[in-house]
Write a structure and sequence with these properties.
Layout: H1 2-12, E1 20-21, E2 24-25, H2 29-47, H3 56-59, H4 67-93, H5 95-113, H6 120-152, H7 159-214, H8 220-250, H9 252-277, H10 285-325, H11 335-350, E3 356-357, E4 361-362, H12 365-398
Antiparallel strand pairs: 1-2, 3-4
Length: 399
């Protein structure tokens, strides 16, 4: 149900390269109709652009007397629009590449699905994946709802301009939120397959350890079976790594722009929180509650994105590496098994799944902490700038 809901969201926002049916992309006339629908949708995104920066927000709103708030409003809108159109251009100029990538992901998913049995470990894994997927969809809907409600709280006597601004912002916001959620879901699927591989490799290790304790020699049949299982898991792991690199390479620019948009939005939200906290902006308790939920949904989505990227890169390699070490003491297995194990280990060392955002910096949990710290630094700078403006205005009044 959750997968279908995410698929419907992606299809409705034009974020799919083509419609899907029974695990296959529909081409021909059905894709042409979908391309026409996508073109109309993207035309609407272009049409609402002029309403993104209404004059009343600068002349007749709570930010009319605060240049820092106006600057933050402009920069937030610009980064959101740039991130949005990075997704639009990706859909049109890399559609064939996305179709091929989608087919490879579906094929890899079906191969890894064969590893599952009726054991409790796989059901627990599915529950964990379903929980993360539910969080992603819940946060996406919560962000859209809270964003709409907070925009409706902006007072203005210009009804048409306000309505047009809300519609423009929400169309753009829905597109960007679902684009980020879609990327997270793709990475979650890859992480799910990696966890399946980890469970299967752990089962193989347990089986061989059992044989090591209870047998004097490993039968030829068991030796051949264990070698085939290891070779299959090695092939699937290498394929998973290749697909992960391909996904991150394909979505590299949208991810980088989404990070930029998240950073600017983060600074804007925290600065607004400071303004609400010191009563520089007059507001009601209802608006403050809405603002708190906007902040919660923003940070929640940021943490989910950072966790899933870290899971498919750094943590996946570490877990597989630690598990491969548990095979090192086995003595009953044949030389071919040890050679395949060495090949697996060499591949893991030589093809680390680190992710550099546009080749600029490695993305992991350490850089995430630096990111949040840098947001606080920027907010402190803005607050000092705001205080300086207030002092200057007070001095002008005295003179």
């Amino acid at each position: 149900m959750l997968w279908k809901l995410m698929y419907i969201y992606g299809l409705g926002c034009g974020l799919m390269p083509a419609p899907l049916k029974k695990g296959q992309f529909l081409l021909g006339y059905r894709q042409r109709w979908y391309l026409i629908y996508t073109a109309c949708l993207h035309g609407v995104l272009l049409m609402v652009l002029p309403f993104t920066f209404p004059h009343y927000m600068y002349d007749d709103s709570y930010m009319s007397s605060n240049s820092v708030l106006q600057w933050a409003f402009n920069l937030t809108n610009i980064t959101r629009i740039i991130a949005m159109f990075s997704g639009v251009f990706l859909m049109w100029f890399n559609r064939k590449r996305l179709l091929k990538l989608g087919e490879n992901l579906i094929s890899h998913f079906l191969k890894c699905e064969k590893l599952e049995d009726r054991s409790r470990k796989y059901s627990i894994l599915w529950k964990r994946v379903r929980n993360v997927l539910f969080q992603m969809l819940f946060v996406a809907n919560l962000s859209i709802l809270m964003g709409t409600l907070i925009l409706l709280r902006i007072d203005s006597i210009q009804t048409f301009s306000k309505t047009a601004m809300i519609v423009a912002h929400m169309i753009q916001f829905i597109y960007v939120v679902l684009m980020m959620t879609g990327i997270c879901v793709i990475l979650l699927i890859l992480h799910w397959q990696n966890e399946r591989l980890h469970i299967a490799l752990k089962d193989l290790c347990s089986l061989l350890n059992y044989e090591e304790r209870n047998s004097l020699v490993l039968s030829a049949e068991n030796a051949n079976i264990s070698l085939r299982i290891l070779a299959n898991l090695f092939q699937l792991f290498a394929e998973n790594q290749r697909l992960t690199r391909e996904v991150l390479r394909t979505f590299d620019l949208p991810i980088a722009l989404l990070f930029l948009k998240m950073f600017v939005t983060n600074v804007n939200l925290v600065y607004h929180g400071v303004q609400f906290g010191n009563d520089s902006i007059e507001t009601s308790w209802y608006t403050k509650i809405l603002g708190q939920w906007v902040v919660i949904s923003h940070y929640w989505s940021a943490v989910l994105l950072m966790n899933v990227v870290d899971d498919v890169t750094r943590r996946s390699d570490l877990k597989i590496g630690y598990l491969l070490r548990e095979f090192s003491h086995l003595e009953l297995v044949k030389r071919k098994f040890h050679l395949k194990l060495e090949q697996f280990s060499d591949h893991l060392r030589c093809h680390s799944a680190t992710y550099k955002v546009c080749g600029l910096f490695v993305f992991n949990k350490q850089t995430s902490l630096v990111y949040f710290f840098y947001v606080l630094v920027q907010v402190l700078v803005l607050v000092q700038f705001d205080l300086k403006n207030k002092v200057d205005e007070r001095n002008k009044k005295w003179h």
